[in-house]
């Protein structure tokens, strides 16, 4: 053994600490590196540029309901893979992977709770579950949320986030558009408000149905909202679209939204709206 090996072996090396790979979040808008803990405590909003990141049902419910207390509503059972669809993978395999990744049964989750003391039924679409796509399960969950609101004499609030209809369910997915529209009409006949909060992104068949039928239309800053993609529209009309087209602020300026509300202010905003539109839920 050489003298160098002897010296090296005599040095008490400190064992390398294992550090998690997800300590930091890089903002996709401004590139700022933010501690994950700080980012999550800020409701996934960049502290530098105010970019609103995408969040799932659990984080949304925790921030929205009083004390983070709420009761998740059971997801209705629907027939899975009715068309026996297969592309590069079987549809059942994609569902299994999405459920493992998110811990959710499908892309729309409902919960019941109170927002500043006011009863509300809230539905949240999760873009992490197959792009928040609208299929039989999403349609059934939406109708179930409306029925729960009617039974509880409370408003129904939906947070939309979707790439559109779920292609693996074909025409059955598109049938959820009229189905949810009828449910909204039942809610209005019961004299209860329907409030929509559009988050990034809200597109396709969801935009063409229940996302645009609210008594009040809200959106988070910078949310992408539209039916077809910008490139598709430009190639169809053969014109260049203006900057910020299909973003929440552009839609607000052109009369398609009532307000663009910062995530930190949503809870107070929704409580105010519920108080105006459905004061009886305070009981």
- How much of the residues is beta strand, in percent? 15-25%
How many E strands? 9
How would you state the average pLDDT, rounded?
93
What is the alpha-carbon Rg in Å?
A: 23 Å
Written as H for each helix and E for each strand, in order along the chain, the element string is HEEHHEHEEHEHHEHEHHEH
Description:
It is built from eleven helices and nine strands. It has helices at residues 3-10, 36-41, 57-64, 91-102, 136-152, 170-174, 176-189, 204-207, 230-237, 248-253, 266-277; strands at residues 24-26, 33-35, 70-72, 108-115, 118-125, 156-162, 194-202, 216-219, 259-260. The longest helix has 17 residues, at 136-152. The chain has two domains: 15-51, no CATH class; 54-282, Alpha-Beta Complex (2-enoyl-CoA Hydratase, Chain A, domain 1), CATH 3.90.226.10. The protein is globular. The strands form two sheets. A seven-stranded mixed sheet has the order 3-4-5-6-7-8-9, sandwiched between helices. Helix 5 (136-152) links the parallel strand 5 (118-125) and strand 6. The chain has 283 residues and is of the alpha/beta class.
Briefly say what this structure is.
The chain has 283 residues and is of the alpha/beta class.
Compile the SSE list and pairings.
Elements: H1 3-10, E1 24-26, E2 33-35, H2 36-41, H3 57-64, E3 70-72, H4 91-102, E4 108-115, E5 118-125, H5 136-152, E6 156-162, H6 170-174, H7 176-189, E7 194-202, H8 204-207, E8 216-219, H9 230-237, H10 248-253, E9 259-260, H11 266-277
Parallel strand pairs: 5-6, 6-7, 7-8, 8-9
Antiparallel strand pairs: 1-2, 3-4, 4-5
């Amino acid at each position: 053994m050489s003298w160098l090996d002897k010296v090296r072996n005599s040095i008490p090396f400190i064992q390398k600490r294992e550090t998690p790979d997800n300590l930091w979040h890089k903002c996709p808008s401004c590139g700022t590196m933010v501690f994950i803990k700080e980012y999550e405590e800020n409701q996934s909003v960049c502290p530098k540029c105010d970019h609103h990141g995408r969040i799932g049902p659990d984080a949304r419910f925790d921030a929205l309901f009083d004390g983070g207390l709420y009761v998740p509503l059971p997801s209705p059972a629907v027939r899975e893979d009715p068309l026996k669809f297969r592309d590069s993978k079987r549809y059942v395999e994609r569902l299994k992977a999405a459920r493992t990744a998110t811990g959710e049964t499908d892309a729309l989750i409902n919960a019941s709770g109170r927002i500043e003391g006011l009863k509300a039924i809230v539905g949240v679409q999760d873009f992490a579950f197959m792009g928040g796509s609208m299929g039989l399960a999403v349609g059934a969950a939406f109708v179930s949320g409306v029925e729960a609101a009617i039974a509880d004499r409370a408003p129904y609030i939906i947070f939309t986030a979707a790439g559109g209809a779920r292609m693996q369910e074909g025409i059955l997915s598109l049938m959820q558009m009229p189905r949810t529209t009828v449910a909204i009409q039942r809610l209005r006949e019961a004299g209860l408000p329907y409030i929509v909060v559009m988050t990034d992104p809200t597109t396709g068949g969801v935009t063409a149905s229940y996302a645009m039928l609210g008594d009040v239309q809200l959106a988070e800053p910078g949310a992408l909202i539209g039916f077809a993609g910008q490139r598709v529209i430009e190639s169809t009309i053969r014109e260049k679209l203006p900057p910020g087209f299909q973003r929440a602020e552009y839609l607000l300026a052109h009369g398609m939204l009532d307000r663009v509300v910062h995530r930190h202010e949503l809870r107070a905003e929704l409580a105010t709206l519920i108080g105006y539109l459905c004061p009886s839920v305070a009981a």
